[in-house]
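Study both lines:
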Amino acid sequence: MSAHYETLQIEDPRPHLRVVRMNRPQAMNAMNTRMGEELRDLFRDHAADALADDLRCVVFIGAGERAFCAGADLKERQGMSEPIWRAQHVIFEEAAEALWRYPVPVIAAVNGVALGGGCELALCADFILAAETARLGQPEVMRGIIPGAGGTQRLPRRIGIARAKELLYTGRMLSAQEALEWGLVNHVVAPEALLDKALALGEQIAANGPIAVRQVKKAVDRGLNGSLADGLVLELEAYNSTIPTEDRHEGVNAFNEKRPPQFKNK
């Protein structure tokens, strides 16, 4: 990545893997307007660059130990006029949508609190890992508003309607262990092991056929929005798109030659 960001840190620690770190630890990584713009830029406007660079997995995390993202920066919002508030929120909506539609798998590594918009960003990832100290929730109703970056839609799809309504109505936070039990997160690990665990899972993903993985993501995400019959059609389209690839030939040859495959994203 050659782009420079004020509120994000971008690292490529291992082949085909990228770490995107929200970097406002002094504000618990709360999302201000600039961070929203930069997240939108990274995940929407530079999505094609990720494919060109053969990026195969992203780990999305917050800087510091206290927070993944504490939601929107309410200090910046203090005294905002309604038109400016609405304009800012459009940016946040676009950032979340870009993350949700990013063609490469994204793992959210929740290293502290993920509240409001921070929880919504985590929900836009393909799945979530959490540190034992993490807390997740949608407390918007406690501030007289509601989630506006997908929380009312993605949370019920992740944990079920009744449980999601409980959290959305009360605004209470889940501990990492509760989030695991409710199906909101996939794994809970010690804080110091969180990034390593996320990178290890990222390496497992990156070792597989990258075109195939992207097609799985597309089939799952798009298929769940419609009927089973429609989803099966999408799955077949995704399946057929892998047949002419060099990676499909390599995968079969590697199996028959009893060696690890060397996928080239072609």
